[in-house]
Amino acid sequence: MTKVLKMSSSSRQTLTREADLDFDVGRVRADFPILRTRVHGHDLVYLDNAATSQKPRAVIEAISRYYDCDNANIHRGVHYLSERATADYESARKTIQSFLHASRPEEIVFVRGTTEAINLVAQTYGRQHIRAGDEVLITAMEHHSNIVPWQLLCEEKGAKLKVAPINEDGELILEEFERLLGPQTKMVAVSHISNALGTLNPIATIIKMAHAIGIPVLVDGAQAVPRMPLDVQELDCDFYAFSGHKAYGPTGIGALYGKLALLERIPPYQGGGDMISSVTFEKTIYNKVPHKFEAGTPDIAGAVGLGAALEYLNDLGMANIAAHEHELLAYATDVVSAIPGVRLIGTAKEKSGVLSFVMDGVHPHDIGTILDQEGIAIRTGHHCAQPVMEWFGVDATARASFGVYNTKQEIDALARGVEKVRKVFA
Amino acid sequence: MADLRDLYQELILEHSKTPRNYRELKEADRKAEGYNPLCGDRFTVYIRMQGDLIQDIAFQGSGCAISKASASMMTQSMKGKTREQAKELFQHFHRTVTGEKNGDSADLGKLTVFAGVAEFPTRVKCATLAWHTLQAALEGKQDSVSTE
Description:
The complex is a heterodimer of chains A (about 425) and B (about 150).
Chain A: H1 10-22, H2 25-30, E1 38-39, E2 42-43, E3 45-46, H3 57-70, H4 80-100, E4 108-111, H5 114-129, E5 135-139, H6 148-157, E6 160-164, H7 174-180, E7 185-191, H8 203-212, E8 217-220, H9 232-235, E9 239-243, E10 254-258, H10 260-265, E11 276-279, E12 284-286, H11 300-316, H12 318-337, E13 342-345, E14 354-359, H13 364-373, E15 376-377, E16 379-381, H14 386-392, E17 397-401, H15 408-424
Parallel strand pairs in A: 3-15, 5-6, 5-7, 7-8, 8-9
Antiparallel strand pairs in A: 1-2, 4-10, 9-10, 11-12, 13-14, 14-17, 16-17
Helix pairs in contact in A: 1-12, 3-11, 4-11, 5-6, 12-15, 13-15
Chain B: H1 4-7, H2 10-17, E1 30-36, E2 41-50, E3 53-62, H3 65-78, H4 83-97, H5 105-108, H6 124-138, E4 145-146
Parallel strand pairs in B: 1-4
Antiparallel strand pairs in B: 1-2, 2-3
């Protein structure tokens, strides 16, 4: 099957051509032991990367090596292993700093994942700055994790959650977003790439609009970190949240980037060990940023694994990865939308990594079960974005999402699987 | 290995496309709503009782082929049953779709087509959603039933 790729811009075309020279998907696949799994008699076709990605051997080995050689608690022991563990942990922080192009390692706070990062900002910066009558502005395409923390905050403070609408392609309506920004807005929180639709938001423009009237912006980068080159200084975002496990790292670890001046001014998140510099029963002096936000023994091995994952991505090259996934998405869009009865949900001009669709007369859950029998893993359901489903008038969608190791052959398998669904329900 | 044809039997596909008793029961004296937050399946089950008998039963809502066919065939088999019989039938059906025992065809009748669900553990909730909802309606529970 040969298809001509539709590229949205000539620059992308150039990027793709250049990138393809260096990017050997066969070699990438060999780095991921789990891809050898057989599922119901078929080779595994893993297309659920927006939910979580698989882990390269480099990550698995880094975690194993940490426990084999370096394990101890950090920031307190004077012994050899504690120094090594502390060095590992802080070196992972520096890897994240350089991956995001943050100016200093102190701007990186380890958290459990995107959800905790957003809750941290809502419960610290949010509780400090948002008062009754104020507004928090989000978009209609947010994941529940970028809705509920703000709802909790707004309920507590008597503030309002405002939602900027999206159009029928699943794109943010920028004029409406700008209209909703006002003196009462105290915080903007928006996803970089929508997990349910794949929409790539014009983050730089959104940030400029908000900053023009002095409003800080949190970016939910859960889907963007594994898919595109990032530079938080160039974006000028105030907070950037992401999860390790969607970026080929382990579960249970993620990071929050915050501008140093902001992090220094906001109160701690949780109390406990490591976040203090001195404690008496009368008064506690908090530790410096970022330790002020890292109470208790953190997931040290997780941090080490995340560092290894980002180094792995750096070696592949984020521009190469972006080009590879763009090509996969363009190809998948062509072959899947050509199947009769299939309707794509989310047809933004700027998209990345995610293909959501529904089929006439077939519930997504049934699509998922039939594809699973072919060894193809996709996600079906509301993708933790129920308001998005409601806007498109569907209960759920089937979602294929791509990663560094996916191939066009796997997308052909997806298309054959969807054809089989059609036959079962014909 | 589980076979897709065990799950998507002709009768199940047929009921999912043209569900029976699919309407709002205006004369209902009880109704309950069932919801599976995982996949968004949502059904309302209406019943009209005559003493201890289910005189009439209907349902509405949306869901996958398994949940819809199960709701449709449940309404067919529940008409004229007593509360106790309804409860027993549900228990029997539940054991069948979870694979605890093979369906005794004499008791379950056409509902034995759902025996294949046992090979697909993630779909048990689909097959039982309407049944849990009916149970709630019979017990007069007001809250929405959730499978999670």
